[in-house]
Known about the structure:
Blueprint: H1 10-18, H2 26-38, H3 49-61, E1 66-70, H4 76-84, E2 90-95, H5 98-111, E3 117-121, H6 124-129, E4 137-142, H7 149-156, E5 160-169, H8 174-184, E6 189-194, E7 200-205
Parallel strand pairs: 1-2, 1-4, 2-3, 4-5
Antiparallel strand pairs: 5-7, 6-7
Helix pairs in contact: 2-5, 3-4
Amino acid sequence: MSRMTKALTPELHDYLLGHNHPQQDEVLRDLAAETLSVLPDDAGMQIAPEQGAFMTLLTRTLNVRYAVEVGTFTGYSSLCIARGLADGGRLLCCDVSEEFTAIARRYWERAGVDDRIELRLAPAVETLRTLPADPPIDLAFIDADKEGYVDYLRKLLPLVRPGGLLLAHNVGMAGVTEYLKEAEANPDLETIIYREGAGLAVTLKKR
Length: 207
């Protein structure tokens, strides 16, 4: 019998989404709908609902107090991470688009998580270069320009605590394959691929 993953038909996808808890709520549905309506050519950059639920669960499980996101777009992933933060937890978002993140700000406020999020509008490499080693990063999520993924990994890795996670979106794209090669060559890292949506690489920093 084949051990390959079963093909994800539309019916199977709907079944899996129906068993996600918590399911996508009104705020996330409205954010996804507005993104598609206002930015139809760019809406594909948004993470899938099942990835958002997974990221909230990971954030909660790790008891994340400090997270960093590289590439915020309209705020779906950051909202999911912020909802999973431990009491007093903070999320730093790095992006360069005032247009996209203006939508994010509205939905952060509507969801009641805006007080947990700091947005810095500047090239992410510049922002990451200025971050102190303390507090250490518990969780980092990369979903930006694919050719920059390796640089983001190199900047983030010294700042992530042992036992922390790095997540990388769009694992099938060219720049991300270089990220995976770099991560897999590092003996201090362990990576698995979560295939839902556009694919997510989950990398544990072991030490």
